[in-house]
Specification:
Peptide chain release factor 2; 3-stranded antiparallel sheet; alpha+beta; 3 strands; globular; 29% helix
Length: 55
């Protein structure tokens, strides 16, 4: 299924204050370890996305 790329389409949210959270809106995968994500550790997000594509 192809998705339209539009202004306002949001894949991921980064909240750094007052709490730490990175959430992928396609899979609902989230982590509170923003530093690791910002340093390139996206494995959890990639695995959640690939798992969601198999459904």
């Amino acid at each position: 299924k192809k998705q339209r790329i539009e202004w306002g389409s949001q894949i991921r949210s980064y909240v750094m204050h007052p709490y730490s959270l990175v959430k992928d809106h396609r899979t609902n995968h989230e982590t509170s370890n923003i530093e690791r994500v910002m340093n390139g550790d996206l494995d959890g997000f990639m695995q959640a996305y690939l798992k969601s594509r198999k459904l």
